[in-house]
User: Fold this.
Amino acid sequence: MRRLAFIIIILSLVGCIDELNITTERVLRVLVVEGSINTGPGPHYVRLSKSAKYGSIFEDFSKKVNSALVRIRDEKGNQVILEEVESGVYATPSSFSAKVGSEYTLIVESNTERYISLPEKVQPVAQIESLRIESKKLASNSDAVFDIGVEVYVDFQDPGDEQNFYYFENSGTYVVETNPEDFMLVTPNGNVPAPKDCCSRCWIREEAGDPEVRITSDDRFNGNVTSQLAGFIIDDGKRYTDKYLVKVSQHSLTKEAFRFFEVLQSQLSISGDLFDPPPATLRGNVINVIEPTSPVIGYFYASDVSVDSVFLESSLVAGSVAGFRLDDDCRVLPNSSDQRPVFW
Assistant:
């Protein structure tokens, strides 16, 4: 969900109707919270940054919040302190996981500021029974270009006699092939062949092959077996060189968290059409304790989770996109490793 914080910032700025004085030298920074915990194994992460809401210029649009004291507390007063593992990113201990039925509150203290979230109760989630895949060709923004990829559906039994809300996330692993032997060194006198000995085959891990916000409630299938779209993994020229392992996480949501993501999803659907929904303010569940009227962007949620994975074979999208080529060591690619995963 790392992309979510940037989306929330943009939509909050667009939805703001306060007067904007672009000549002022003053810049108001707003805390952006992106974090969650679940019943799966840790660590779980909370990301903190400050966004410039207005000012004379939009330089340094987002600034990481470092050296904050970040805690998660349950309804019994038990708490865990998160460690800053990189700039603005705070992690729970790997041994920590949420418990169904418990309530959790996020507390952030930074300099003279103090923030606290409303309690989030972990609701039980239906377990994924199976994953189903379908090759798909969808129209894109261009009439002449299509997005070709694989849709992944989750099949599960929804519990009856209660209202349930679901949120779907995905992550992926895939292979890339590069050509380090054809590497060219750029010099003032032109490019010079400088072959590299390693490496031509790497595994890439990505946080979200499908970054769309995918949620649903059981209003139309309460108590029944259902199949819900959890992700659409587009062929981008790299993902299906060999095969793609997609891991799907099905989360429970509280009614309040579902409403937040529903508004977010609605705002992301705006395309400039006459029938688009009107801009709306994204109201999260984090409060500035010192200045309660001061805005805070984002939502902290706690959930139960069910996880399953499936390999998507390259034959599902064969020849849909021109192949990827890189004349360099494949380890220069983000989130890459030449070490074969144990599950591959």
